Amino acid sequence: xxxxxxxxxxxxxxxxxxxxxxxxxxxxxxxxxxxxxxxxxxxxxxxxxxxxxxxxxxxxxxxxxxxxxxxxxxxxxxxxxxxxxxxxxxxxxxxxxxxxxxxxxxxxxxxxxxxxxxxxxxxxxxxxxxxxxxxxxxxxxxxxxxxxxxxxxxxxxxxxxxxxxxxxxxxxxxxxxxxxxxxxxxxxxxxxxxxxxxxxxxxxxxxxxxxxxxxxxxxxxxxxxxxxxxxxxxxxxxxxxxxxxxxxxxxxxxxxxxxxxxxxxx
Length: 266
Prior knowledge:
By secondary structure, the protein is an all-alpha fold. Helices cover 79% and strands 0% of the residues. It is globular and about 50 Å long. 40% of the residues are buried.
């Protein structure tokens, strides 16, 4: 494969792993160290998290194929469809799982030419809603308090998406009216910081009320601080590794939590 294709594959892996990691982070916040013991016992939960990654891979590959129509993206899309089908075969589908038709339609609407993302200011909300909805709908361990997890995940994904709009501010069509195009680079950064602050306040309140694990809340707070620093440094000419770092943040944080919990159980 060409160097560009390897970069595309790397990005797909990061985004898929990080989407699945949001489900892990939700479980870590709710149950702390007990969540990983539960994940080890419950194979269905593991399959569910793998399905989240597979669906994310499929969606991003499909969008890439619709935009570029290359053999590489067609292959990646077929791999994603195959993996998603494999994990769906034995799944016990209920109403929440069936509601995945909504993010699926949003993804289709995003990808088609002259589709939903051409609407002013709608691009970032399509991405954020699809990502959040998929994680919440497929995470049974978050079902009891799905709304609070939906809020902090939406705010976090919203803040994580803005740097990419900052990068593309001069290449995106002005019909999109992304935040940087509508508010300028500085204005968009302030909106992103406001979203990060919302996540941090949610962490503080939920931890203070005894609902969330202190270790997990602290690690997600560290994620937010790292994201805030990257937002401060980001601009349309920033190197690709900064954007890869943003994609990887949930994955890094979930892995860090897993390592801490493993040490605590030794």
